[in-house]
Amino acid sequence: MDDLLSIGEFARRSGLSVSALRFYDRERVLVPTVVDPATGYRRYTIDQVRTGVVIASLRRVQMSVDDIRTIVELGDDTGSVVDLLDLHLGRLEDGFAQARREIAAVKARLADDAAAIEVVVSAPGLLRALDAVRFAAGDDPAYSMLHAIQLRLTPQECRVVATDRYRLAMHRTACLTANVPEAGAASYVRDLVVPLAWIDEVMEVLETQDDSRVTLHASGGRVRVDCGPVGLETRTLDVVFPDVDTVLGAAPTGTATTIDLGQLRKTEDARTLLVDDDTHVNRAFLLEAVTAAGGQATLRLDGPIAPLAIHGIDGAMSLLMPIRPEDEDANEVGRA
């Protein structure tokens, strides 16, 4: 018994605290060689110190208890241990990369709140862009963050996006002039999420004003649109808008089919439409998308569960999620 270590001595040699040793005993990760039945005192062998040191290292890199237990049980199976360590390291690196992105986003937001950007666009171009996406904006009370439009301002263009989770619409209009912060001006990007009610006011002004140019100014968490003598201002929304770049980047690129409003109006009795051999979509949603695209659109599909892409001739683009058919006799549209 003299060659056994008390829990305090073992803690000092292994780098694990006494409370940690008691925890790993309960979890059957590092069990003492002897537990005094009268006092409950734990005793460890010298050989267990190496295991304790390994556990302390894994604990510091936030490995789960289950994975630590597995590594201890694997013992001298070095290959399997290394595989587990590499897997955990990969998770740590992914997490660290995500942390970098989140911190960078916070820094960018703080900088954006202070910086000012001003772009001038065509009034008809902005109205067309807003009109092309307005139909896809959300109205579900459970997703109030989607009762909005995302404006992306760059020195080159103003991109407009709306989504209600079932569909997404995007259009853009070119910037005639732009004043952006000097640092990284060529690649400057400013994302603004603005209330839908404000967008409706802007569209009403654009429809009634004769001025051909519109100025968009963003600074300090606010955005203003000036069109002729009329100026409309709102506070930007502090919400997490969906990652539309990823969605748009994965848009279907399959075989193209042309469809127009005349074809769709012939299907007025249907709720769902068959746009491919096994792809059904909501008729009302498709009708809105084709209308927003300008009355004639190109459809692209990559499969029965992938979104349907609707492209207008002027650059309007929307994505529509497929649905389960309500019956076997859904009307067929968009056949080549």
Automatic annotation (TrEMBL):
Pfam families assigned to the protein according to its UniProt record, in alphabetical order: DNA_pol3_beta_2, MerR
Domain HTH merR-type: 4-74
GO cellular component: cytoplasm; DNA polymerase III complex
Assigned keywords, A-Z: Cytoplasm, DNA replication, DNA-binding, DNA-directed DNA polymerase, Nucleotidyltransferase, Transferase
GO biological process: DNA strand elongation involved in DNA replication; regulation of DNA-templated transcription
Annotated GO MF terms: 3'-5' exonuclease activity; DNA binding; DNA-directed DNA polymerase activity
Domain of life: Bacteria
Chief place of localization: cytoplasm
Record keyword Transcription present: no
Subcellular location: Cytoplasm
InterPro entries xrefs: DNA-bd_dom_put_sf, DNA_clamp_sf, DNA_polIII_beta, DNA_polIII_beta_cen, MerR-type_HTH_dom
Transferase found in the keyword field: yes
UniProt similarity note: Belongs to the beta sliding clamp family.
Protein name per the record: DNA-binding transcriptional MerR regulator
Organism: Rudaeicoccus suwonensis
